[in-house]
Amino acid sequence: MSFTTPEIAWAPLAPVIIVLGAAAVAILLESFIRSAETRRKVQLGVSLVALIAAAGTAIAQWAALEGAGTVVLDGMLTVDRQSLAWQVLIAVFGTLGALLFAARTRAGEEAFTPLGSVAPGSTEETLARRKGFQVTEVFPLALFAVGGMMLFTSVTDLIFLFVALEVFSLPLYILVALARRRRFLSHEGALKYFLLGAFSSAILLFGAAFLYGATGSTSYAGIAAGVSSVTGVDAMILAGAVMVVVGLLFKIGAVPFHSWTPDAYQGAPTPVTAFMAAATKAAATAALLRVAYEAFYGLEWELNWLIWAVAIASMVLGTVVALVQTELKRMLAYSSVAHAGFILVAFAGFPDGALSALPFYLASYGVATLGAFAVITQVREKAEDGTVLGEATRLGQWAGLGKRSPWLAGAMALFLLSFAGIPLTAGFVGKFVAFAAAISEGGWPLVLIAVIASAAAAFFYVRLIVLMFLTDVPDGQEDAIEIDHSPLARVVVIIAVAAVLLLGIVPGPVLAAFENAGVLLLGAAG
Amino acid sequence: MFPILSVMVALPALGAVLLWALPGGARVRVREIALAITGIELVLAVVLFLQFDTGAAGTIQFSEVYPWIPQIGTSWALGVNGIGLLMIVLSALLTPLAILAGWWEDKDPARRTHYLALILLSEAFMIGIFAARDVFLFYVLFEAMLIPLYFLIGSFGGGQRRYAAVKFLLYSLAGGLIMLVGVVALYFQGPGGEEAFLTDNLTNLPMSTTAERLIFLAFFLAFAIKAPMVPVHTWLPTVAETARPGTTALLVAVLDKIGTFGMLTLCVALFPEAAQWAAPVIIVFAVISVIYGALLAIGQKDMLRLVAFTSVSHFGIMVLGIFAFTQTSVEGAAFYMFNHGLSTGALFFVVGFLIHRYGTADVTAYGGLQRIVPVFAGTFLVIGLSALALPGLSPFVSEIMVLVGAFSVAKAAVVVSAVGVVLAALYVLLTYQKVFTGPAPEGRKPVRELTRRERVVLWPLVALMLVLGFLPGIAIDTLREPSADIVATVSTEEAGQ
Fold this sequence. Notes:
The complex is a heterodimer of chains A (526) and B (497). By secondary structure, chain A is mainly α. Chain A contains 20 helices and 5 strands. Chain A has a 3-stranded antiparallel β-sheet with strand order 4-3-5. Chain A has a two-stranded antiparallel sheet with strand order 1-2. In chain A, helix 1 runs antiparallel to helix 2. Chain A is globular, with a radius of gyration of 22 Å. Chain B has one domain. Chain B contains 20 helices and 2 strands. Chain B has helices at residues 4-21, 30-51, 82-101, 109-131, 135-144, 146-155, 161-189, 199-202, 209-226, 235-242, 245-255, 257-270, 272-299, 303-324, 327-358, 374-387, 394-407, 411-436, 452-470, 473-496, and strands spanning 61-69, 74-80. In chain B, strand 1 (61-69) and strand 2 form a beta hairpin. Chains A and B meet through helix 17, helix 18 and helix 20 of A and helix 5, helix 6 and helix 7 of B.
């Protein structure tokens, strides 16, 4: 038996290789650097360098790309402008996330538990804390997640889709469980996320099996060909397609596959929530776009009802449930469910415009999300004896924040206005292009529902603004809140503010770039 | 050419940034700085008015077009015809007066700075909206304006202000977002390209009847909420009674005109067929607004709520004029938009001065003031009479134009609306009677006569109403051609059917 070495074009995969390579190196560093302090600094440095280099490489490839793109690994992966655009986006979110991971409070406290393997509240935990242990492996874990997500955006084969999904999901499950405070909540969130994630992976795999059975192929191109030529197994093809889409909708967090979001968002350490909320949604949207446009384009008519139903359910449920939340992170979690609905609106009728609208939408949503969670890390509870505790995430604790720290509250208000889609913020332009894409294929009833949901959603965003600016600090609570000044978190807030304003006021260059990226190499569309 | 309109938008916006950036020490002079900025703005508005070529009032003048986001076809396109010109003059006139009227409202310099910066920001948005020649730009400013207004209502004012601010925001946002669907849909009806949203490129579009009607409704709903028409008017009284009189004056006198302005320049001009189709129903709602607003005004004890309801009634008359589609009625409606700004602005200011003296807006707490403060009483009476359209004051001219112009097409509507005019006499004179005549309530505090600052606020408005009452031609000359164009669009549509 002869073995032929597969020919792999490594160069087009450079961004992914940089990130995954750096992750492997970073794991080694964990074993060799003894001082926790040095390790933290080195790990942050490695992460930042790798992510920025990856983003830079992706941009360079994008600029140098001749023709529509390159097929790698015999059609398993496709590197085209669409995938490169998403990779840049995810690398940027990863960079901002890494900065937040490293942020510490004034008292020198990280967001992560000193030792993940010990039971909450145990003596070992106290000892670990006293010894100044740090779980710096969060950085390589995040790098693995970023690498997996970047891969996820260029996958054009169902097998590889599953592999990439697991590569980025497994590190996230671990990261969610590593919160320093309220560890039980963190564990609960992680367990739910893991169980439901595993469940969704299984559904995706099951769907892939159906499709393989019906069309004899796992590659998107093969499935697309099968969809149009194979007859007699329509039900099997449709069931497979629906299952694959459902598996991805889990990751996007759309109703009814959203039930992990509130717990995972609330329980996870806030930097992880920020990173996960921004990057996972982007990666899953990218993968859904690709599978929908490259493999299932012929099923557009059949899948449309699913998209419509899930979009409407997500928008309505996300908005209504967010209205009654009293916990900030849960409120943002339900808001992310509503945003998942808005994302799906752009899919209505599979318009070509979605290919350039959705990267912009996710860019605007991602920076605002990272910014908002970065602000949350800065608002802390204070005990009566003056020691600073965990984050103040009950809504009532934010009353009068505008008086305590006008700039921080102002930044948060800007992010909320962007979520609400008020003009001159990034969120508005994002909504505009997404809705425009939907309307171009006759999806205006869906858009009408979307705008009504946006108006209702504005209510709970505005409620927080009212609390921050128009409500006084409750009597006796003057000393209950401490505003932290972590330079790294502040940098993230400032970058996010700048990005939200820039994307809102002069979105032209970015829109043009994404328009340029709105082409799929193997697309049946356009 | 000097980009005067862009400068007029940028100046107050930069002024707002300047105020926020001022160091603590310089904040004692913040009112003077704000007044100076709005003063310059007023001078620019006067220059604009004088430079405006009345002979070609129907064409867009001072036009500026720069690409903004070419990817989605929007431009920074400004320009005014006669109608926009008058609205800009009105905005530039009322803003400094509102600042003067609220001169002593805040003791704390930080709060004062914040308030004035928000007022300046609102002025920038107002002028931008009245000058916008690009539907997307119009929409963006229309929605973004909500933010300063929201904080103006929610941070400064009486007890229920938070509730009022949220109610205002949600009403406006709901209307605005539905308009967004219309804006996006309009894009796909239009020619596309890098200047797809220019108003000029969107007029006379070939559209299917259904599409035109649906898009028309999306726009109209947003404007009906803004120019409060029954049944979507309920936010206005709530806001009026809680916000500061200065804020409310700007809100009702200028900002709400964006509603009627939008109906004239977007709804009717872009969708003439749909406008005609909807006109009968809209006129019915307009007449209901006239009567309902007037009736509720009579029943109010709170003077601010009363003025708010009178405005609901007056906006009904404007909408009636617009959708009657005759030369005289449209011209009258456009003129009324300006006059109502003068009259209602003055009314809110004068009621604000009363409240400042007495600390209450409740009409029953007053009485017999005429003998003590005759000048105040006289000024109040003249302003009140302008609201009931007394001949000799400019609102009379415009109201009679609307009613006469509309009579030929909607006799019943005009007859019923005329009842509203009679009711107006009732609510104005009854209020005057309760406040200024009769016995004084017991234990009354001494009351000051109209101060010099207050006269500076009120008398120019009264003078302007008198001048325009006798020489309405000054304003109407700039409105005749644009109105004729609007009527022509609708009637060609009619002839073509």
